[in-house]
Amino acid sequence: MGPAEGPGTGRADGGARDGEDPFLAQRLAMVRELRASGIRDPDVLAAFARVPRERFVPADLVTHAYDDSALGIGHGQTISQPYIVARMTELLELPAVRQRDPSRDPRALDVGTGSGYQAAILAAMGALVVSIERDPDLSALATARLIEVGFGDRVRCVVGDGSAGWVEGAPYDAIVVGAAAPRVPEPLAAQLAEGARLVIPVGPRDYQSLHVVSRQGTRLEERVFDACVFVPLIGRHGFPE
Ligand code: SAH
Predict the structure, then answer these.
(1) Contact 125, 43 (CB under 8 A)
(2) Is the shortest distance between the CB of 161 and ligand 1 below 6 Å?
(3) Ligand 1 midpoint to CA 128 (Å)
(4) Which of 29, 45, 57, 118 could disulfide-link 61, Cβ–Cβ 3.0 to 4.6 Å?
(5) What separation in Å is there between the alpha carbon of 77 and the centre of ligand 1?
């Protein structure tokens, strides 16, 4: 499997001139749909307008890159649907992190790199991202892709069991998990910085809801949001293989 086609190739509209982005109209339509679905954070919407989603899907699915659905990326894994990525990103409240400390970029941990799309969205919002994936092949593909689209200096891809987080980069201002866990993994909550948030799908293997854990001092607050369906987080603090 090679990287997805770049802008300027695969001209589905047949009419794009050189230098034009043939996916721009679809990308902006996706952003309008996200707004209509209730995504409000302007930074989140701007990131979705900027990241070329077509580069994160397999070449044969490029025409479906902007459908509001999850797509297979090989290795039995998926790139999540745009709405749920947007919703999870919004729940992280990265703009509030930046307001608390404008002198530095927020640090984010992305668990389950998959295609790398969520990591790219976080990078486009100005975060410095560690993205952890258990499948070395998926991680290698995502690393190459993130470099190609220009996020190589903001995203560090690592291979390992992300259910235990990634202590080397902790504490994080935001942690997002793109796979479902039976309960909130304790090490992830432990790697949250003061005021930081963890967004994770929690529930049984076949359906979950988004949980948001936030840290205030030693106190952790947990709230439950949208229903969702994710592939399982396989690991020590997730589901057994
Ligand atoms: N965020 C991704 C979608 C994630 S799909 C995107 O934007 O495309 C879930 C991913 O989590 C899969 O790639 C799967 O291999 C990975 N995964 C499952 N368990 C994991 C674990 N314990 N640690 C790291 N990655 C894991």
Answers:
(1) yes
(2) yes
(3) 19
(4) 57
(5) 7
For the CA of 115, the nearest atom of ligand 1: 8
Separation between Cα atoms, residue 6 and residue 160, nearest integer Å:
29
Of 13-27, 142-156, 183-197, 198-212, which gets the smallest average pLDDT? 13-27
To the nearest 10 degrees (0 to 180), the angle between helices 117-124 and 82-92 is: 40
Q: What residue spans of the chain are helical by DSSP H?
A: 24-36, 42-50, 82-92, 94-100, 117-124, 136-148, 186-190
Domain boundaries, the chain: 70-228
Going from the Cα of 19 to the center of ligand 1, the distance in angstroms, rounded, reads: 34
Mutating to test ligand 1, I would choose from 234, 236, 237, 239 the residue with most ligand atoms within 8 A of its C-beta, which is: 234
At residue 14, the pLDDT reads: 40
- CATH class (in words) of the domain with range 70-228: alpha beta
pLDDT at 142: 97
Note the pLDDT tens digit of each residue in 68-94: 999 999 888 999 999 999 999 999 999
Q: Model pTM?
A: 0.92
Which 3 state secondary structure label does DSSP give 4?
coil
In the residue annotation, 80 being an active-site residue is answered as: yes
Q: Determine the Cα–Cα distance for residues 132 and 30; give it in Å rounded to an integer.
A: 27
Closest residue by Cα to atom 10, ligand 1, is 112
